[in-house]
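I have a small job for you when you get a moment. Would you make up a two-line entry for one protein for me to read? No commentary is needed, just the two lines. Write everything out right here, beneath this request.
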Amino acid sequence: MYMIQIKPHTQCYPKFEKFDETIPKAFQALKKFILSKIKNVKIEHFGSSSVGIGGKNVVDVLVICPNQDYKAVLAQLNNMGFQEPTDYTPPPERPMRVAEFGYDDKIYHLHLHITYDVSKVHTDAIKFRDYLKAHPDAAKKYEMLKKNELETSISERDKYNLSKKEFISQILSK
């Protein structure tokens, strides 16, 4: 059994990377680690790595709280070594924590998105993930969109996010 090690988040130059087949196993270990420390949350893997497609090689995780009172969960995450992002200020209704985590002699970049059960953030993320898993052609199209944006507008976070948002909105409207 491998141990999870939470490490300080370091800024990295985002670039497109092929899907890392070790991420699903590392996510499961991270999920067990978080749930061993915080009992009243659900943990879901979402984003490109949850679907098996390339992207920025960041493990996106939803930490789903029972309600909108995130203070205790955020304090627990902080005590575990997760940090507030330094390059981005998330909206207060959707806090975020970042870190790197070591598992099986490998380091993974991690974004924890904090939300509450059945929130729009929660339901949209899961609906989008599940749609891409069920529709490989759509998943491939999303992967190509991300690749193209990361290769052409890497320093323009807003442009990258806008192009993803348009694609995601089209899928969620189905």
